[in-house]
Amino acid sequence: MIVKRFIKGPLQNNNYVIIDEESREAVLIDCSEPSDDIMDYIKEQGATLKYILLTHTHPDHIQGVNYYRKKYGVSVFLHKDDFPLLSQLGQYFAGAESVSVDKLFDDDAEFSIGNKKIKVIHTAGHTEGSVCFLIDNMLFSGDTLFYGTYGRTDLPFGDERKMFESLKRLFKLDNDIVVYPGHGRDTGIGAEKVRY
Q1: How far apart are CA 24 and CA 48, in angstroms?
Q2: Distance from first CA to last CA of the chain, Å, rounded?
Q3: What span, in angstroms and rounded, lies between the C-alpha atoms of 65 and 120?
Q4: What whole-number distance in Å separates Cα of residue 29 and Cα of residue 15?
Q5: pTM (2 d.p.)
Q6: Strand, helix or coil at 156?
Q7: Per residue, what are the HEC states of 47-74?
Q8: Is residue 15 within 8 Å of residue 127, measured between CB atoms?
């Protein structure tokens, strides 16, 4: 698997391109702003972007979605529990662009690129529909888990109790799983587990 991080937007968001080397299928996790360099990279790799998966609906993670849907015809997927926030972005975040997605998924959703399965782990807390995506030994954690800390719960649709339930679920994963967060540097399940 090829993993390429693109840091985008004023909040320095991590957007991740994951490419299955055999099939050359790719997925983009989060889409922070309109940009062509991500698609240019995918094309340079001889890969095809299969879809965009969103970890949650805060504007800094999704403001490129409409651009990618319109220009490149890429389908965008979001957990169903974050749709209420998606439909009310303007009420909570001044200047946030209205964003459309193609399909809502639930906890049992299955995605893949080539023969690689992408497992959805619902991690409510930062938002009600926050998710992590597990591919092999890589966890793309959005704003649920970071190096040395976890996601804020004081924003709209956040919940501290649910966040800690979600963290407990993540800490049952293998210690050697690498965590790729929505902001900042990589970490690992084993390293973060000892902090809590």
Answers
A1: 6
A2: 31
A3: 20
A4: 6
A5: 0.96
A6: coil
A7: CEEEEEECCCCCHHHHCCHHHHHHHHCC
A8: no
d(CA 79, CA 81): 6
Question: What residues have CB less than 8 Å from 22, skipping those under 6 apart?
Answer: 114, 115
pLDDT of residue 24: 97
Which regions in the chain score pLDDT beneath 70? 196
Residues in the chain: 196
CA–chain centroid gap for 155, Å, is 18
Write the pLDDT tens digit of every residue in 31-41: 999 999 999 99
**How many alpha carbons fall within 13 Å on the CB side of residue 189?**
20
CA distance 52 to 38: 12
Q: What is the pLDDT of residue 156?
A: 85
pLDDT score at 196:
67
Q: Provide the residue type at 128 as one letter.
A: E
Of 64, 8, 77, the C-alpha closest to 34 is 64
> Six-digit token pair at 176?
């050697």
DSSP output for 159-196: -HHHHHHHHHHHTTS-TT-EEEESBS--EEHHHHHTT-
What type of residue is 15? N
pLDDT tens digits for range 61-72: 999 999 999 999
Can you tell me the distance from the alpha carbon of 114 to that of 19, in angstroms, rounded to the nearest whole number? 9
d(CA 80, CA 20): 27
